């Protein structure tokens, strides 16, 4: 019967997942280090442009979690920007698809130097579960030089945060644009 099921759905307790178990102080320490590193390396807050090259959106969900009340990175200087012209980091998710190769190259060309490129998730690294498809060329390293790889399917928000922190704390300059790219 449909009525009992409908009544349970309307009047019963909601079925939700528990909040993520993040040890107290860990996220705060990572946020503080990220803010200090961005100021030391760039002299300002870190601006990120997220580019989806054809993913399943699992990585995007984890990236969006960086902006929820648990992580709340906007308050600590990490911000996502709508235009690559304002970005310091291109955070790329998904495999490099034939449809998105030119868009990724154009986005990279619009981003001012120094521009760090981060491959987030297994698909961006090597094509992941989409590898071998006729529409997939491989990881994003096939088109642009990658400065940092954050593996995982999908990587957790804490892993993304640790990766961005490692990128800023490393004393390595951003890789230059490839000759002939774009």
Q: List the secondary-structure elements in sequence, H or E.
A: HHEHEEEHEHEEH
What's the CATH class, please? Answer: Alpha Beta
Strand content: 5-15%
- Largest beta sheet: strand ordering: 2-1-3-5-7
Low-confidence stretches: none
Oligomer state equals single chain
Number of helices: 6
Amount of helix: 25-40%
Annotated CATH topology = Rossmann fold
CATH-scheme architecture: 3-Layer(aba) Sandwich
State Rg. 19 Å
Spatial gap, N to C terminus: 60 Å
> In one word, what is the shape?
globular
Overall mean pLDDT stands at 85
SSE-based structural type: alpha/beta
Number of strands: 7
Query: Largest beta sheet, briefly?
Result: 5 strands, parallel
Number of domains: 1
What does this structure look like?
This protein has 182 residues and is of the alpha/beta class. The chain has one domain: 3-Layer(aba) Sandwich (Rossmann fold). The protein is built from 6 helices and 7 strands. A 5-stranded parallel beta sheet has the order 2-1-3-5-7. Strand 1, helix 3 and strand 2 form a beta-alpha-beta unit. InterPro entries: Complex_I_20kDa-like, NADH_UbQ_OxRdtase-like_20kDa. GO terms for molecular function: 4 iron, 4 sulfur cluster binding; metal ion binding; oxidoreductase activity. Keywords: 4Fe-4S, Cell membrane, Iron, Iron-sulfur, Membrane, Metal-binding, Oxidoreductase. It is an enzyme of class 1 (oxidoreductase). This is NADH-quinone oxidoreductase subunit NuoB.
């Amino acid at each position: 019967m449909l009525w009992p099921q409908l009544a349970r759905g309307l009047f019963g307790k909601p079925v939700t997942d528990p909040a993520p178990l993040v040890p107290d102080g860990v996220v705060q320490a990572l946020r503080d280090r990220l803010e200090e590193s961005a100021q030391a390396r760039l002299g300002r807050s870190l601006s990120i442009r997220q580019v989806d090259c054809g993913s399943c959106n699992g990585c995007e969900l984890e990236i969006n979690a960086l902006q929820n009340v648990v992580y709340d990175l906007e308050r600590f200087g990490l911000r996502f920007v709508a235009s690559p012209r304002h970005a310091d980091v291109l955070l790329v998710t998904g495999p490099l698809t034939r449809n998105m190769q030119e868009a990724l190259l154009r986005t990279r060309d619009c981003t001012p130097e120094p521009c760090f490129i981060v491959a987030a998730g297994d698909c961006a690294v090597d094509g992941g579960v989409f590898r071998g498809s006729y529409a997939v060329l491989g990881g994003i390293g096939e088109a642009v030089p990658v400065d940092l790889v954050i593996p995982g399917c999908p990587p957790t928000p804490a892993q993304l945060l640790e990766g961005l922190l490692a990128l800023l704390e490393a004393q390595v300059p951003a890789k230059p644009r490839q000759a002939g790219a774009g």
